[in-house]
Design a protein that fits this description.
The complex is a heterodimer. Chain A has twelve helices and no strands. By secondary structure, chain A is mostly helical. Chain A has one domain. In chain A, helix 8 crosses helix 9. The longest helix of chain A is centred in the middle third of the chain and has 33 residues. In chain B, 37% of the residues lie in helices and 27% in strands. Chain B is built from twelve helices and 14 strands. In chain B, strand 12 and strand 13 form a beta hairpin. Chain B is elongated. The chains are: A mainly alpha, B alpha/beta. At the A-B interface, helix 1 and helix 6 of A face helix 3, strand 6, helix 4 and helix 5 of B.
Chain lengths: 293, 327
């Protein structure tokens, strides 16, 4: 038998240096952002981690799909629920999504101490904290925006007034962006402090769902008692009542127990901005501190 | 401690600028003095940083990475000042921390790729490099499994791989042999040596075990309670003491037989393990090779098989103990 030519020779190339291009800080930050955004939906992680986010997303899209089908088939002349009100009605799902996914972005690196490996790399702790927050905020925003887009497409399909619908949908999307920034800040901060996933989830549920329930109850009682200013004032306390109050003030089709108007509007905006800013400062301080340990 | 703190030595034979240079580096946490007035230069190759737990090794590395601000003093790493160039330093330096830092639900392969990207490598370069370094550190098929199921040895390898993923010019290895069994420890030390020699990456490796660093380092820096005890080439630490060690075939009987015979010929002997330790020979036997010849002849006369005849070198431990006693 003729000798076959040698084909499979393994060469040990030894250690090879890398002299190719290296990304700048901005590109690294963008990579971290995209990875974080994917991880918030379980993408690039284990199969099990995809269940919760997509289950919640499916549940929050389902009513919108039903509404769309209803409007298209029956030829209703308006959506039975406004875009902003829809977000509020799926409040529980949105809050659960935030509570379950914030620990993925804010607890894991701290709990397993892999944060040290990140901070030993070019991105400063401040940028790391802000990028993580941005990943969660955008993930949150997509979560609330997708049903809005679905409803809007349905409205267009049903031939509803284009300019009215577009204005309302855009208002809702802007309000959702603010809501996402708020919720991502609050749940992110809670998750970065309580490293046990269970504690982080419970803490976030308390801050979003329980607090929101209490605030709504107090608001309703106050307005029933004729104390409208008190009812509006209490709304400053929780992210959801801030969102709803601003949606009401902006005419995005959402009713609050008492109308938010006059000087309350800038107060709501200011408190929302302060809350976001405070959470970001807290996150930055937290991650700067872990870097030194 | 001014006397020990003022010791300044450049380690490494390379004439280029030092890889690390510190001047009066001090870090105090309240009343705890983690580092005091450290002035030391580190050159290329493998430099061992020795000290007991709490001697300031990890603090020094954190400061050099720009993660911790020194209370006083300054330092440069690869020509970048730690005050302003932290980001530039972290771009070209790798760091393997002492403690566990691996997420358990990610595979080593995915993790090292991600870490390479966080160091600024593009997606395809990161994949290629991480496959390369995982091969070099010796993680084979297990690289595709979640790291939660790894043994300590595999975890240490994965930690080392992430430190090398972006082809740094310098790596800080904090206690890389921690928790390893003897065989894995030897493997790890060999790898550390290769990184310094074959890979051409400067290494600052810490350990509280002096014997380990003796084997792999070109230079050794000894820290004690935040103070610099000594910094010099490993060879200088292991200078000859003039003493000799002799071992013959057989048991303690043969050992004692040789020792007594040598003592009768004017050498001061004492047993050390299976060997005979001979103090520096007296003047009449001090000439080059005279003592060696005498030992050979005595062994031959007694009909003993000579197994080993070597100079008794000092160990790093001795240096450390001396320094510790001084401090």
């Amino acid at each position: 038998m003729p000798e076959a030519p040698r084909s499979g020779v393994i060469h040990d190339l030894g250690y090879r240096r890398y002299d190719g291009p290296r990304d700048g800080t901005a590109t690294i930050a963008r990579t971290l952002f995209v990875t974080g955004l994917r991880h918030a939906y379980g993408l690039g992680r284990s199969g099990r981690s995809k269940v919760m986010p997509f289950l919640l997303l499916g549940m929050s899209l389902l009513p919108a799909a039903v509404v769309v089908g209803f409007v298209v088939l029956t030829g209703l002349r308006s959506l039975p629920v406004s875009y902003a009100a829809y977000t509020n009605q799926t409040q529980l799902l949105v809050s659960l999504f935030a509570a379950s996914q914030a620990p993925v972005l804010f607890s894991r690196d701290l709990r397993h101490r892999s944060i040290v490996l990140y901070l030993a790399r070019p991105l400063p702790a401040t940028v790391f904290a802000l990028v993580r927050w941005a990943s969660l905020a955008v993930a949150m925003w997509l979560f609330t925006a997708l049903p809005t887009v679905l409803l809007y497409l349905g409205a267009m399909l049903a031939g509803l007034d284009k300019s009215d619908q577009t204005t309302d949908a855009l208002k809702a999307l802007v309000l959702q962006a603010g809501l996402a920034a708020l919720i991502a800040g609050v749940t992110g901060l809670i998750s970065s402090v309580s490293l046990r996933r269970g504690f982080a989830v419970v803490g976030s549920v308390m801050a979003l769902i329980v607090l929101s329930g209490v605030v709504t109850a107090v608001q309703n009682i106050a307005s029933a008692e004729g104390e409208d200013p008190a009812s509006v004032g209490v709304g400053l306390v929780s992210p959801w009542s801030l969102h709803n109050g601003l949606a009401n003030a902006w005419g995005a089709g959402l009713d609050t127990p008492a109308p938010v108007d006059g000087a309350w509007v800038p107060a709501y905006v200011l408190v929302a901005l302060l809350l976001i800013g405070g959470c970001l400062l807290g996150l930055v301080a937290r991650f700067r501190k872990v870097g030194t340990r | 401690m001014a006397a020990t703190a003022s010791v300044t030595t450049v380690t490494g034979e390379h004439t280029g600028p030092p890889v690390i240079a510190t001047a009066g580096l001090t870090k105090h946490y309240g009343t705890v003095h983690a580092l005091t007035d450290l002035t030391v230069d580190v050159g290329a190759g493998v430099t061992g940083l020795v000290g007991a737990n709490g001697a300031g090794k990890s603090t020094l590395i954190k400061i050099l990475l720009g993660l911790l601000e020194p209370t006083a003093g300054h330092a440069t790493v690869l020509g970048h000042d730690i005050d302003h160039g932290g980001q530039e330093i972290r771009r070209v330096v790798g760091y393997m921390p002492e403690h566990d830092c691996l997420p358990p639900d990610v595979s080593a392969s995915d993790f090292v790729v991600h870490m390479a990207r966080m160091s600024g490598l593009g997606a395809s370069a990161a994949r290629e490099r991480s496959a390369d370094v995982l091969r070099h550190v010796g993680l084979d098929e297990e690289r595709y499994r979640p790291m939660g199921g790894y043994s300590t040895g595999m975890k240490q390898r994965a930690k080392l791989a992430q430190a090398l993923a972006h082809d740094p010019q310098l790596v800080f290895l904090d206690e890389p042999t921690n928790g390893l069994d003897p065989a894995a420890r030897t493997d790890m030390l060999r790898l550390v040596q290769r990184i310094g020699s074959d890979f051409g990456i400067a290494v600052l490796v810490t350990s509280h075990l002096l014997g380990e660093l003796e084997q792999v380092s070109d230079h050794v820096i000894v820290l004690d309670g935040g103070h610099l005890l000594r910094s010099s080439a490993t060879g200088d630490f292991l200078q000859r003491t003039g003493s000799l060690l002799v071992e013959v075939v057989g048991t303690e009987t043969e050992r004692d037989l040789l020792g007594e015979a040598l003592a009768r010929r004017g050498l001061t002997c004492r047993p050390r393990g299976a060997m005979v330790a001979i103090d520096p020979p007296p003047p009449e036997l001090a000439a080059e090779g005279v003592a060696h010849d005498l030992i050979r002849d005595v062994a031959a006369e007694l009909g003993l098989g000579l197994m080993r005849l070597q100079p008794d070198r000092r160990h790093l431990e001795d240096v450390f103990l001396e320094g510790g006693a001084r401090a």
